[in-house]
Amino acid sequence: MDTAQRLRLYYEACIPMGLLVLDMLHYGLPPFDDATLTLVPGLLMCMIIMYYLYDRLSCENDDSHVLPGTQTSMYRRRADPGRMWGGVLVPLVLFALNIGSSSDEKHNMGLGACGAWVLSVAMAWTFTVRTSALSSGCSWALGGAGILALTLAGPWEHGNVGVHVCLVAAAASAQHMGTQFLVRKLPRSFTLGEAAAIAQGTSLAVLDLAARLFTRKGLVDLQHMCVLVLEAAGVGTALIVCVLYMVAPRHSQGVCVADTVWMCVAAGAGAGVTTSIIAFVSGTNPVRWIVLAVLGSQTGRMVLIYWLMLMLCATAIYAWCAQTSTGPSSPSKLVLHIKRKSYHILAVFLFAPAFVATPLVLHIGFTLALCVFVCAESVRVLCLNGWGGQMTRFMRRFTDARDVGLVVTAHFYLLIGCAVPVWLDNTRGCVEAALAGVLALGVADTCASLVGLRFGSIKWPATVKTVEGTCAFIVSLVVAVECVRWAKGFGYEITPSYGVMGSLVVCVAMGVLEALTDQNDNLVIPLTMYAAVKMLIHSDAISWISVVVVAAMLVMPLIPHSTLIQLRTQ
Prior knowledge:
By secondary structure, the chain is mostly helical. It has 23 helices and no strands.
């Protein structure tokens, strides 16, 4: 690994490390409630980042940075494994949700924000030590020590130590098995970090739903109901995918009546399971609740009409572009980028006005869109009803080198990056955080890609990203955030908890991260920006993050590579 690559990894790790240190100094001291629940998991997360750097930079063989039971060829090619983000991304978001939200928002989860936060750190810690180059005995010892430390922190109101240990161990095992399943069944679609983050988030959602089922409380409020609909829909979608996988034909035979029948059966079974879970936990009629939530107000109906008109216009434009671009020659790189980023721009017009008008409808819309995306991708991969080839040809018009695996992940990451901040913060209490994905991907990432490709000449070390593109990202994101923060007359009041300096710190950090990370920026950038905004929104020590990040960037690259090698061999 050359010096440029080492510097890139150092600087990438400084961003989550700076956020964690800042908030541990601010919220992890005794005057604050639950200071131990902030300090202990926060220290373990910092240890994960430092251990990742030590282990990654002192080992030249990439084969040692894969999950046991998998091979290097199963991961996305020409990308860093990203083990740090596999361990840090989800806990970082839950850390921000835990310390940057009101007491009501913290209890929107069945596990509670504290319980989910500690569980995620336990999963991250065991994942990190298990995928390292340590011996098996040392891995088990470190994993056990982390689980014991997190268990003794006591994040749950009820239960005993034994129950806590079993819950943490089950969460860690679920993430390990989920990551291994994604990598082996969907080869070359993910890096190790991306697969681990998705498996970790999915495992937490399943455990949270299980907690709701076992602690059924009858009628729940609006926020609980939104999360319950999301989790129940996820279970129903998983059932649909399983049914389609079991009945998928070995070879595509074109349109088949049996495939159509089974697709209808799977859809009915998934819808039945979803509604049953919602009715069991909430005690309400889920169909009636969703219809009233979407169509019960004039605002909701206007949003649906707006979405329909916008999608019709977008479909007509894309159809015209497809007809005018047909031919044997492949599109140029600039044309491909314009096609890809047009979806990012469409996301801004779809999601931002809907969030301003009615966050509830947008929350439900995101849930439905994710279910449709998963089912459609399953039909494409399994070649059901002869649609696989047609859908693949359409999707390949918008893919790049990162979408060479079995599953096309670009549109999933775009949807998840825009949806997760809204799912976590859909009360319009912190508009900058809720729209982090829309602003970062729809505005900043689009400007960075087009400006960097057209005018970029100075490249960042060990990447293909350009300094000009990063500057465009930062400037456009600052303008977009300030426009949202100071908007008036949209039914909410924005409290300027931090000024332009705070926005600039967040935007610069996100611009540097977008330039340096090898992971899919549609997944990493929105979630990290959400965490940064939520962490800083209640902090009056904005200068701390600048001090921490600058100090880390200045000190860490001074560590000689030979020193790391000597430490590893001792």
